[in-house]
Amino acid sequence: MVTTDSLVRFHPVQVRPSDDDPDEVVVGRPEIGQFVELPAVGARAIELLDAGATIGTAERQLAAEHDIEVDLVDLVEALREAGLVDQIDGQPLAGPHRQVRPHLPGLRARHVSWLFGPVAKLVYLALVAATLVTVVRRPELLPTFRDFFWTDYVGLAVLVNTGLFSLSATMHELSHLVAARSLGAPARIRFATRLHHLVLETDVTAIWSVPRRYRYRVYLSGLFWDLAVVCVALLVLGHTTPHPVVAALLAALVLVLVMSMALQLHVYMRTDFYFVLLDVLRCRNLFHDGLAYARHLLRRFGHSVLPARIAAAGDDPSAVLPSHERRAVRVYAAAVVIGSMVALTSFAGFGLPILLHGAFQAGSAVVAGATGGSLLAAVDGALVLVVEGTLQTIFLLTLYRRYGRRRRPTTAPTSVTPAGPVPAG
C-alpha cells in the first residue's frame, strides 16, 4: 500500500515538454510503449522521489517550491498502473506491461538518419518530378485493372500478385520501422486487422518520446517508399524496353501499390493518414474516443426508441475532452460510422460474393482436373485456393489473437492522461 511514508523508485523514463501545453510534460518508457501526460510539477515529483525522498517529503518540497498542494499518492498509483514505477519501499513491482523485444534492435539512428536528410529529400523530389514528366508524355503507363491479369492463368496471377503485395507491404512496414529507428525509437511489425482487411502494422508507440513535428516522418515513410517504388517502375517502363513478362510484372506492381496507397486514405480505419490526422488535430486517441462517442449516440437513440429494453446512455464520453479535441472526435465519429458501414456493406455485397464465387470456380476446376479434365486448370484453381485459404486463415487467427483473448482494460485516474498506441500500417 502506498502511503506518504513510502519510498518510490522509477524505471528510467524519458521526459519531454508537451506539444500543446507548456505547463505539461510527456513522461514514458519507450521500451514498453507507455507514455502519460502530466503537469510539469509531476516531472519534478518524479525527480524528487527517484532521488530518495519519501512521498510526504516530496509533497512538502513541491509545496515550498510551487506554492501548491499535490497528492502524490494518487500520482504514484497512476504511474504504477502505467508501468513507470520500479519499486515501492524496496519491493520490486511486477509491471502490468511486459516489455516486447523490438525488431532490428541493432539498427541505430546513425545508420539510417541520412535517409531522411536534405540530400535524400532532393533525390526523392527529382525522382517524383521525372516520373510526372514521363507520365504526362506517356499516359498509357498509368495502371488499369487489366494490369492485374498479366497471364491467362488467374491462379498464377493471384499467387504472384499476392507475393508482390506481401513484399511491398513488408517494405512499407520496414520503412515505418526505419523511420522510427532514425529517431531512436523502438518498433515492432505484426499482423493486424482493419475491419475485413488483413494487414501488417508497425507498433511505433515509442515515437511519443519525440515532438510532433518529427512523428510525421514515421507516419508517412511507408507511403513515401511506396511512391518511390511506383516512380522507379514507371521510369523503367517509360524509358527502357524490358522483357514482356518483366514489363507485365512491373505494371502489376504499380497497380498493387497504387491500390494499397489509396487504402491509406480510409481514415475511418487506423491507416497512416489517420495518424497524420491525429496529430494535425492534436488529439490523443481519435479512433477510440470517436468510437466511444458513436456508441454513446447509438445507446441514446436505442433508449429513446426502446426505453424498457435499452438502458440510458449515461454521460457523454467526449464531454471531458478539451474543446478542440471534442469537436474533432464528434466529427470523426460520424466518419467512422459512415465509412465502416459503406466498407462492410460493399464487402458483403461485392467482395464476399466475389471471394466465394472465385473459391467455388477454383474448387470446380480442381475437381474437374482430378476426374480427367484440364490439369493446368486444376493447378491454377489449386493456387487460388491455397493463396486465399492461407490469407483467410491468417486473418482469422489474427482476429482471434486480438479479440478472442482480450482482457478487461484498466482506467488510469484523471490526474494522468495516457497516450494512445500508434500502430502505423
From TrEMBL:
Name listed for the protein in its UniProt record: PqqD family protein
Residues spanning the signal sequence: none
Pfam families documented for this protein: PqqD
Domain of life, per lineage: Bacteria
TM annotation in the entry: 114-136, 148-167, 218-239, 245-263, 331-355, 375-400
Keywords, in A-Z order: Membrane, Transmembrane, Transmembrane helix
